Amino acid sequence: MNSGFDAVAAAQALLAVHRGAARFPGLVPPPPDPDAAYAVQRHVIQGLGKAGAWKMALLAGRDRHAAALPGRMVWPAGVRLPRLPSDACIEVETALILGADLPAGVSALTAMDAIAEVRLAFELIAPRLADRRTASPLELMADGFASAGIVLGDPLPGWRDGMRDPLGITLWLDDRQVTAPEVAASLAEAVDFLAWLSSHAAAQGLPLGRGDVIITGARIGPLPLGDARTARATVDGAGVFARLT
Question: Which end of the chain is more exposed for a tag (fewer CB within 10 A), N or C?
Fold first, then answer.
């Protein structure tokens, strides 16, 4: 990590927005490398409270990385969410819920055994930076890959069967059904990420624990919310609902 980059100062700027300050154009200077971006993430988590969730993301669309998210940014379905900016987006995800602590370096089999359930979920996308289209990939990584939180829905029946195909999720914004492609993401891919994450999280000083929530990539979205007041998604009797205003 470049010694000229001040991860604490960058984290303080992001924390100010979390606490109600206006969004700002970008981190100056930006993080020079992933280690610097992860250092910012750690300081943000320290400022917001205990980590309770993680998300998988691809840096610049290529390299697998992750972001720690505070437990206070995980909400039950139906709760009225904090106000979101006008350019906020939404993704439909599946969330792994851990039923056991996971130490570093676990096998895929151990990671699989630690999953208590898989839930339908929303991820909200709204960075602390003014325009995520102009922010650099490392700035977005430092800012938790632009996550604004997770809404947890119902457990998915039959998730242990592998989730190898598109699930057939239906999404509504208000009363409008949204036509959008769904990405298939198998349980095996999620478990592979979870095993990797066990070591990464421990290296960040944030080891995975029972009750942690892990989202492993959008199945639908990101889609702009616009002026929608509610979002709802369903599949196979499971659902997730969010009040957006």
Answer: C
Name the nearest CA neighbour of 129 among 20, 46, 41, 13. Answer: 13
Mean pLDDT computed over 162-166: 91
* CATH classification of the domain holding 171: 3.90.850.10
Residues 6+ apart with CB under 8 A from 62: none
Assign 104 to helix, strand or coil. coil
Q: Are 167 and 219 in contact (CB under 8 A)?
A: yes
Q: What is the pTM of this model?
A: 0.95
Q: Can you give the residue range of the structural domain that contains 127?
A: 50-243
Number of domains present in the structure of the chain = 1
Per-residue pLDDT of 187-230, as tens digits, reads 999 999 999 999 999 999 999 999 999 999 999 999 999 999 99
